[in-house]
Amino acid sequence: GEDVEQSLFLSVREGDSSVINCTYTDSSSTYLYWYKQEPGAGLQLLTYIFSNMDMKQDQRLTVLLNKKDKHLSLRIADTQTGDSAIYFCAESKENSGYALNFGKGTSLLVTP
Amino acid sequence: NAGVTQTPKFRVLKTGQSMTLLCAQDMNHEYMYWYRQDPGMGLRLIHYSVGEGTTAKGEVPDGYNVSRLKKQNFLLGLESAAPSQTSVYFCASRRQNIEPLHFGNGTRLTVT
Fold first, then answer.
1. How many Cβ atoms from other residues are within 10 Å of residue A112's Cβ?
2. Pairing label, strands A9-13, A106-111
3. A16: which of A1, A74, A103, B95 is 20 to 30 A away, CA to CA?
């Protein structure tokens, strides 16, 4: 199937902003999602955005959506060491019971 | 309210053995999904169910079978395990098809 693309690694210093980018494939996806996975754990929903929105802000998290380019980004302000994890973006696939189609994940490393 | 519970958490099988992974949710969700996660591959959909008594194939269904006899349970079976099935298996559920997925904590399976 078609791939949701993400860069694999990002390293930032504590206190800086992190921006994780994603290109998705299905323009009919009603919502687009960001999940976080810490080592040895399951996936935790961070935030999601309705496809007719351009931006959503939730505390330190800002999601930007460019529907024309099928581009999604997640900005984490004032990044902390506890934000070190793998971040997945996901789209919804109507032809698979609306299952989420995930990117391969971006591994974020926050250094002191 | 336990959410999505997967059992067992860990298992080691020999090639050719069979086993069943259990996913249980107590949120009265209609939709349930099985994914596998492998390094560098992200999450790939194995099978899914859009309601009690229904199942369908996802992206990587070969070597697996599923059943959804009760709404709250979604079972994933391996009839004859192969080393290529060494993976971390995640179950997820949701109430409606536009809602986020709720994930279990995963089952780590090693096939030797």
1. 7
2. parallel
3. A103
Q: Is A42 on the interface with B (CB under 8 A)?
A: yes
Q: Would the CB atoms of A97 and B43 count as touching at under 8 Å?
A: no
Nearest alpha-carbon partner for B94 in A104, A22, A49, A97: A97
Contact A100 B98 (CB under 8 A): no
CB-count exposure of residue B94 (10 Å: 0-12, 13-18, 19+): buried
Q: What is the DSSP letter of B13?
A: E
pLDDT tens for A14-63 read: 999 999 999 998 888 889 999 999 988 899 999 999 999 999 999 999 99
